[in-house]
Amino acid sequence: MQLERLDDATLTTEQIASEVARTEAIVKVADKIVDNARLNLQACELVAKHGDRFMKHLPMIGAPDAPALDFKKKVEGAQ
Predict the structure, then answer these.
(1) Of 10, 14, 16, 66, which residue is the least packed, with the fewest Cβ within 10 Å?
(2) What are phi and psi of 34, to 5 degrees?
């Protein structure tokens, strides 16, 4: 949709500049969303690989009153 707006031949120079600024803002927001997803994936990978070492120090990651999970056993068993 944004490309269609920029391709409109009836736009004035001022309108094109406004659309370009809008497009840049959309790209910045999209980059933040992708960066956040990447960070979440890295956190999941860290817990999957090394969770047994630090889970007792981060109780907010597990469910309340849940027994400690043996991540190594789960990861090795999945292979």
Answers:
(1) 10
(2) -65, -40
* Residue 4: both structure tokens together: 């269609």
User: How does 24-47 read in b/e, with b if 16+ C-beta sit within 10 Å?
Assistant: eeeeeeeeeeeeeeeeeeeeeeeb
pLDDT by residue (tens digit) across 19-65?
A: 889 989 999 999 999 999 999 999 888 888 887 777 777 776 665 55
| Residue 76 and residue 51 in contact, taking contact as beta carbons nearer than 8 Å | no
DSSP state letter for 68: P
- Give ∠ CA 39-45-49 in degrees, rounded to 5: 150
- Which pTM does this prediction carry? 0.57
